Amino acid sequence: MDPYDFWLLDLDGTLVDVEWSYTREVFDRVGDRLGREFSDREADVLWSGLTGSRDRQLRQWGIDPQEFWDAFHDEEDPLVRAEQTYLHDDADFVTDLDVPVGLVTHCQEFLCEPVLEYLDIRDWFDARLCCTEQTGWKPDPEPVQCVMDDLGVGHNGHRGVLAGDGSNDIGAAWNAGLDAIHVERVGHERRGQCVRGDYRVQSFDDLF
Questions:
Q1: pLDDT (mean) for 148-159
Q2: CA triplet 76, 66, 186: central angle to 5 degrees?
Q3: Looking at the whole model, is its pTM more than 0.85?
Q4: Superfamily of domain 6-17+85-207
């Protein structure tokens, strides 16, 4: 593949993932609070963002997104989450990148920071941003452009790429004028659709 002046990366599902038992337990507790059971498929769809916008999916199921996220974040224990998170075998390619590297993730800061600390990968990134209502959410280009500005590559013609596991990542890359790498961790059948990108791989090893 062509060299890039900088790289941006998603976190969950791209560089790291969480043991299914943790996901299942969290959704069980959230379901108890909301008075609604979540099937394995529903939990998988929401956790992995398989259908794109999680808020849109929640509304389609008749669930108020704000009520869901309030319960969801209350039920997540940052330290347990970190201990149940593992690094993908191919993720260490990041340490070989000799260009600025940024992290743009929907994982909230109170969860993201313990994960980065536990896996000892905080120093992989020269800038990072955990999306909020204030920053916007991928595929909105605003959080991507914010990290580009932090890296000093926002407005000077540098050529960059964003890699992620979901359609929101690809949309954010293209909306920000970047190339996009889709790493398909779950498979097309489980996702229920095909996500396009400038590069489409099952492992980052396929790129190099």
A1: 89
A2: 60
A3: yes
A4: HAD superfamily/HAD-like (3.40.50.1000)
